[in-house]
């Protein structure tokens, strides 16, 4: 097995773990490829180092140290590589719905992988393709969500939403979230959307501060793409699209975004000590007080 190691840039708290990890991998005879950000945190020495985007094509497992943002970035790098590389995500952040494995659990989880005892979740991803005058101009993969929002100077945006060829509704709001079940505990949850179990294949459409109080979140199957069109009532670049909170671009009136199930899912190594519902109880502090 060859393992890639990625870390949130500048995460000094991960330095002792990285040093210990390198020693343990060498003792087990496991080759490692380190991101440049990881190598910068470690003592000088011989090791294979490459760019984060190029590592998924070279490894059988990607170990990510950081928060949920680091995992989202790694998931898109894997999707762009076209390979089926599982992720072992270790939480060095705060909330950590995705990076549920804690620092004390990292080496037990790694041993489980090397001894073929690890289990993983299969997480659906999204593919969002933007077209203008019939020609695609952007295509991105998301693990969490695709968000339509207003820019700083705009008041309210107007979007026409369809599922396949069936018109659903016109949304006038501060924005619209199209989320995966995995992303249902991210921005979608903060905006009042439902929590959807990650084993399901579904899309969640949640308006953000809608003008009409009758606009409510809706959960739909993935058989057909969601099509969102920026209508002519949006002047200039009032509508901004954000993918997983990390990639963004502006829309012009008439631009369309088709959002559907991506070509490949993501495999996420599970913590061996807790279930998804235990993670929810811990992160949302259910049954407390």
How far apart are the first and last residues' alpha carbons, in Å?
Answer: 46 Å
Radius of gyration: 20 Å
Reading off the top of the CATH hierarchy, the class of the largest domain is best stated as Alpha Beta
- In DSSP terms, counting alpha (H) and pi (I) runs of 4 or more, how many helices? 6
Poorly predicted runs of 5 or more residues:
none
Largest sheet: 11 strands, antiparallel
The CATH topology of the largest domain comes to Rossmann fold
Structural class: alpha+beta
Q: What is the CATH H-level superfamily of the largest domain? A: Probable inorganic polyphosphate/atp-NAD kinase, domain 1
Strand content: 35-45%
Output the helix-strand order: EHEHEEHEHEEEEEEHEEEEEEEH
The pLDDT mean sits at: 91
Helix content: 10-25%
CATH architecture of the largest domain: 3-Layer(aba) Sandwich
Q: Using DSSP, what is the number of strands?
A: 18
Outline, from the CA principal axes?
elongated
- How many domain regions? 2
Could you explain the architecture of this structure?
It is a single chain. The chain folds into 2 domains: 2-123 and 265-284, Probable inorganic polyphosphate/atp-NAD kinase, domain 1 (Rossmann fold); 126-261, Probable inorganic polyphosphate/atp-NAD kinase, domain 2 (Tumour Suppressor Smad4), CATH 2.60.200.30. The chain has 6 helices and 18 strands. The protein has helices at 15-27, 36-40, 68-81, 106-114, 187-190, 276-284; strands spanning 2-7, 31-35, 48-50, 61-66, 87-91, 120-123, 126-132, 135-142, 145-150, 157-163, 166-179, 202-210, 218-221, 226-230, 239-243, 247-251, 256-261, 266-269. Strands 7, 8, 9, 10, 11, 12, 13, 14, 15, 16 and 17 form an 11-stranded antiparallel beta sheet that branches. A 5-stranded parallel beta sheet has the order 3-2-1-4-5, with helices on both faces. The model has no long low-confidence stretch (mean pLDDT 91).
